[in-house]
Amino acid sequence: MVEASDPGAAVATTRRRRGSVLEQAIHAAVLDLVIEQGAAGVTMEAVAARAATSKPVLYRRWADRAALLRETLVPLAMDAIPHTDTGSYRGDMLAILRGWADFFASPHGAVGVAIVGAMPQDPELAAAFRDGVIAWRKEAMAETLTRAIDRGEVRPDVPFEVARELGQAVLWHRFLVTGDPITDDLVTHIVDEILIPYAGA
Amino acid sequence: MVEASDPGAAVATTRRRRGSVLEQAIHAAVLDLVIEQGAAGVTMEAVAARAATSKPVLYRRWADRAALLRETLVPLAMDAIPHTDTGSYRGDMLAILRGWADFFASPHGAVGVAIVGAMPQDPELAAAFRDGVIAWRKEAMAETLTRAIDRGEVRPDVPFEVARELGQAVLWHRFLVTGDPITDDLVTHIVDEILIPYAGA
DNA sequence: CTCCTTGCATACGGTGGCGTGTCTTAGAAG
DNA sequence: CTTCTAAGACACGCCACCGTATGCAAGGAG
């Protein structure tokens, strides 16, 4: 995942910690397979082969393939979107939407489709994604909006439920449904012509 | 599906026409399986069993499972959304968004997820969906917007690319990504507080 | 009434993934 | 140096699905 496990030191102290090199290689293999063949391509055999290990290793750490998928994809999605205070509502929203745009354009974008496509058949993945990624995004957007209200950039009675998802909804829609391009012009247009008029004081 | 095939008359004339009762039963079986188990659950064997027929029948009419899926799902999606002239931009948009909302709430909503989830691995499905459903929706929205511009309800320079997808993007996003409820209050809110201000003259 | 065409269901070999049992090897303790 | 323990690789049986070849039944032509 993120904290890169500072290789040298950690290995020196304990010979092999719980989630270490091997586990990381497995997650990487899963990610590769998702990108190449979608969630359906993530079989235990394929993962084992790709990670240069064997199936018993996988079954030792994860109950089944669904659990392995969950624990690989959800953390990835968590890291995709920046959450920084740029000092203005416009700047914050631009940063966030550009984060989504970059995510969709990157190979990791396939993770988004994989999760969405797998959720209906995997309630646990759905719960993990919604309680993890979505809930966290909502929280982050709530903070962004609260800061903007404090600054007087956004009207205090703006409907949070809608304001927080309006921008990313268009990007997700293009990415998943229409396949239309997501340009930076589109992002700035959304912010300046839709989000700010809608939320503006 | 929708038009109930007026059983008596058709059977009387030609004993068994090309796409008739059996073919319809097969499509129904595919739909059931998609709803119950997602696109991955649509195996040739399961379809044959569910439709009370056998695999050779399926292979006689469709080259492979992807073709069967395409020819079942795409027409369904085409029938989902109304395309009527209500006489006003607000009325048109309310009708369209309510059409999407009803579609998502119905069992057929699963078809939406199935298509989105399967597109990355099935270029032909993606092409069929985008050249069929999406292109047709774009055209319909273009007509709706043109009428609205003629009536003076919408500014002539409104960006079509964004205006036509803005409303449904929020609904798709809730349906696929967040799982948040899609209420009629939300629909009217989107129309009155977002679409009309954005596109208004 | 018989033949023949048409079209379906049953049955088959082949493949690939699942989940697990067994053996081997490498590191820790005595 | 020897023994013990733990972890991983190999291999197996199982099952579901694929795609096709074969045998059977029903309706039209002679």
Descriptive key words:
201 residues; DNA-binding; Tetracycline Repressor, domain 2; Arc Repressor Mutant, subunit A; 2 domains; mainly alpha; disordered N terminus; homodimer
Helix content of chain A: over 70%
**SS strand fraction of chain A:** under 5%
Q: Name the chain pair with the biggest interface and residue counts per chain.
A: A-B, 38 and 38 residues
- Total number of strands of chain A: 0
* CATH-defined topology of the largest domain in chain A: Tetracycline Repressor, domain 2
Give the overall average pLDDT of chain A: 88
* Overall form of chain A: elongated
Number of helices of chain A: 10
Question: Uncertain runs of chain A with pLDDT below 50, 5 residues or more?
Answer: 1-18
**Which superfamily, in CATH terms, is the homologous superfamily of the largest domain in chain A?**
Tetracycline Repressor, domain 2
Order of helices and strands of chain A: HHHHHHHHHH
Look at the structure and give the CATH class of the largest domain in chain A: Mainly Alpha
CATH-scheme architecture of the largest domain in chain A: Orthogonal Bundle
Main beta-sheet annotation of chain A: none
Q: What distance separates the N and C termini of chain A? A: 40 Å
Structural class of chain A: mainly alpha
